[in-house]
Amino acid sequence: MDDLPTDYTEHNLPLVLLSGLGDEDVVGGDGGGLPRQGSGTKLVIQTPECEGERARHLLQQFVNRDGSLLAWNSNALPGPTGTLRFRMQAIGRDYTLPPRKAAPLAQSPSTEKPINRSRSPSKSAELHSPLSPLSPGSPIFPDGVFTPLWLAKHQRQIPAVFVAFFDIKADDKPASDDQIKTDINAVRAAISRSGFKTRFAAVLLSDKSILHAADLEDRLASIRRVTNLDSKTSLFFMPPVSSQSEMGAFVQGVLSALQPSVIEYYRDLTKHARRKKTRGSIPLTATAPASQSLSNVGWNVRYEMKQGVFAEFRQEMDVAERHYSQAIEDLFNPEGIFETTPSWSPRWDEARLLCDALALRVIRCQLWNNLTTGAAQSWSNYRLRMKDLVDRRGKGSQTYGWEAWESRWAKVMAELTRRADLPALRNQTKQSLDDISESAGLGTFAAPEKSLSTTERLPPFTLLHHAGYWLRLAINGTRSRWQRALTIPAEDRSSPDGSPASAVAKRSRAYDTYLVPPPHKEFPLPEKQGIDHVTIITELSEHAIREFSGKGQNRMSEQTKLDAGRDLVNAGRFGEAMTYLLPLWENCSWRSDDWHSLYGELLSELHRCARHTGNAGLVLKVTWELLGAGPASQQNENLDIIRCIDDMSDGTAALSVQCKDREILSPITASFAFTNKQGFVGEPLGCQLTLISKAHQDTGSLALSKVELVIDTVKRIVIFHDGEKSPDQVNRLRLENAGDVFKTATNLALMPHERRVFNLALTLREAQAVRLQEAVLVLTTDKFDLRHSFASESLLQTPIWQFEYDGELVPSSLNRDESTTVEVLPKPPKIQVLLHGLHQQHYVGEQVRLQVELVNGEADRANGTIRQRVVAQDDIVLPSKWMRAGNIENDDQLVAADDAVEQKVEKFQPSQVMKLDLIVDAPTEPIAHTLTFDVDYTLASEPSTPLRKTLVVELAYATLFEAKFNFGPLVHSEPWPSYFDPALLSASDDEPSGIPQRWRLGSQITSVASEDIHIKGAEIVIDRIANDATFKVLESSENKDQVLAPIAKTEKSFQILTQKFSLDDRRPTILELSLAVSWARDADSATNTTRVTVPRLNMPSSEPRVLCVAAVSEQDTSDILLQYYLENPSTHFLTFVVTLEANDDFAFSGPKHRTLSLAPFSRHLITYNLLVHGNREEIKLADGQGRWIWPVLQVLDSYFQKSLRVLAAGPGVRVDPQRGLGVWVPAPKA
């Protein structure tokens, strides 16, 4: 926008004059831009200026709120929405307003006939604005439309608000305020006389607050009354403040209070302009004929422009846009200035300038209101409209002047986009790590408005892009301007001073010089200085590159750099071109992205620069790349890499050039592959090198001097060029050991697009992972030594192995990703480790015995060791040990080895078999274990080469048994101890003296194995018992061998005797037991023991209980003898009420109901004889066994009123949870 007048392009803000806080030169404010006119109204204040630190800080707070440099959007100013921006200007105590009316014409006697005598004297004497087309002194008199001086007057000379600052001290007398009152009234009167409607405000700065100086309030009221100022909108009092934030809040409050009056001021000006427009008649002037006056359409343009500017002052941008758009339509009106004014007239160019300014302001208003798509469309539509106008009414669009306008219009849009600082075009921070979209954080273009996005699909060029896009259009316009300037004939490039008038007239008709110099200055003869188009292009390119780079559009940035470098090369400025092309060549993405067309152009331009600047090394590198990546036009030059720097060499030392992959493209590519992904020490390892020429057809043969291969720490492989050998497609090379390198030779000449394959055999002596580190192509002459290295794995990798068949190369897939890596393994061990006795499933408690058989498959004697280790998943080591085995017949012949983990293997002859037994202890938990065998040995012929044979097996342990337990009391037949027994008093502490108790522990064992298990027996194992009682297990149920099938069950029962050491010990006895089950896999295998934990047993010793036993009666009068034992092991006398309920299944003899008192440590037996109802034959069940009857005996503690539960304490009696105690009545024997 620099080519347009600043007053036309800047955003209009209300001007606020600050009087009394310092001069503008001190503050650095805007100087006004226009010379003050002496005929204007002068505003003078006699009161001294406010001085001190507070005045300077206050002025700085006002200046900080100047909106001139803020972004052109509604959100740039801090504060609430709708806050008005201002342009602050600090002045002294004197200021002169511009004259509102032009000075009248001088009246002098004249013999000439007066013009327009018929015109009325009032009309002839009417005065107008100095800038009006009706004023003879105006620059646009008589038919001009508009001048930027009008905008400068309202923006820089006529304030919207005049703010005067006065010091008012609390210690001064009230009479000292008279000067303040006088100055305020004088300034207001002067403003009123000037004819302007500028608002006035006064700010009184006090050194004390009203609370500390009581008379201040009366003084302020007096000033307000005399000056007739409103304390809310035009008279402000500022007490001392303690911080900058408080001062800033005061300033913001003053501006907020002034905002309504400022808006009203510009609305009054708008109404005045609207009234003039609605008059409908053309204003006339006494000094110009009507035919030369401005047309009605022209006056409408002026009024629309004024209303739009006043709306912009109010920051009503939608209203301003409407007026600006209407002004443009009036200019393009068939009766408008463009159609009625000849294009050679200066007024036509003035109208173009005004129209450009109006279009600029329309776009700015749209961007202000976030109408981004509308702004882009307005820019494009105006461009097409102006081009059509220039083609019809102007000098055409095929001139350098039009191309300059195209560039200028694009620069205007770039500057508008940049100054608008739209949120849609800002670089945004990604909201989350999941957002991987590049466009999520880079504002490259603005989305269309909601009203457009849902109605139609817009092409991309109608969307608003960032400034770099428009700058690139400006660059293209300037480049076209340069190209058209180059076509200016020599006769038009000379100064018009020495040219004939006809030539000058022809030149003026042929060239459009709107805002551009004439052709003799645009592109003068060589001896004169003209427009430096290339410099303009480079400056625009710098700005565009920054924009594209900031938006992450690196390819556009690179393209712009290439275009700028090409323009500099075409201009012969090779040194400057190198500053663009060389960094681009070093870092551009076209090389890796295979954009050969653009990259070839870059190489061509860089090659020209390098040759003109004498950079031989760069010439060599670029020529090397041009062989394969250059454009076809460059290949026609027959680039010769061998002689490319002959004319640049100084003839001394040969030039050494290092090239690396990814940095420079090579015309010959290399790929490498090992035959297999694994090899062994000492065995030949096949590898294949493939060279492919990518040179163009016109380059001829290219012979490398040598190829070097670097494979990790192994010796280098060097393949030399031998021109006498045949250049076969597939070459089998034999490596020769020459000290530090392996050498071989073959023909390394390649024709364009030729593929050569070289097969090698490499023998490695160390076990390690080997990788091709680097492949180097070397080209050496007497002038230079060029080395191109390929170190990137991705460039050297190849997925195929190639072999020759019938004269053609046939690819074969390698079936692996990394072809340049091979794992060299140690020499494979040939000792075999065989295991015998390993089962698919092992069980907890099972000791595993394995026979390990070693077979020496080597051809030589071996010496070493074998190690074993059994580890669980959580690194728990399971104990194990070796047992030597010879001709083992039974376990007694096993002898423990010297080391439980390691065994020596000495003098192990070829084909010999060695056997060892390994015993792995039984685990206690069902956890999988890993058994590892490592045989480390060496051969007698190669003692320095260690070999290892490893065997890893899994030992899966599972639970063998699941068990259910039931626990209950039994009747103990021995008598109870008594306190009256003298033996109890004489008993020692080591002998138990408590009440003996008998218990029954039953178990039901279920096999969860997958095979038959031989049960050998079961026994109770004490895990823990308290020290206050004795524990004894009586003879268990019969232990006999039993085969238990999967999911089968077996029962084992045990009787337990317990007795407290002291009769006074009332605590319960706690037992922790395990059931140890002895089992074997079959009848002949070893016996294992698996322990099943019994739930903790809690046996009370001081609670009363009722035990029941039953037996078959031997009397003829009864069938069942039923006995109840009532026990009182406590130290209290207990009374029980005993009742046996009648039952339909039997009759009984015995006490039906009785009361029984039991002394401490006593028990009582109650016997019942039961006679089962019915014939004895009728009690047989279907299986002939018998049946259950359910007698109910109620035992009630008469004191606590609690019933005692009857417990089964012998065979033939059981307790059912629902029915109570049951008695088994067996069937009579046959």
TrEMBL record:
One Pfam family here: Gryzun
Sequence ranges of Polar residues compositional bias: 107-123
All copies of domain Trafficking protein particle complex subunit, residue ranges: 347-628
Lineage top rank: taxon: Eukaryota
Segments for region (Disordered): 97-135
Domain Gryzun putative trafficking through Golgi: 657-1226
PANTHER family attached to this UniProt entry: FOIE GRAS, TRAFFICKING PROTEIN PARTICLE COMPLEX SUBUNIT 11
Protein name: Uncharacterized protein
Originating organism: Cladosporium halotolerans
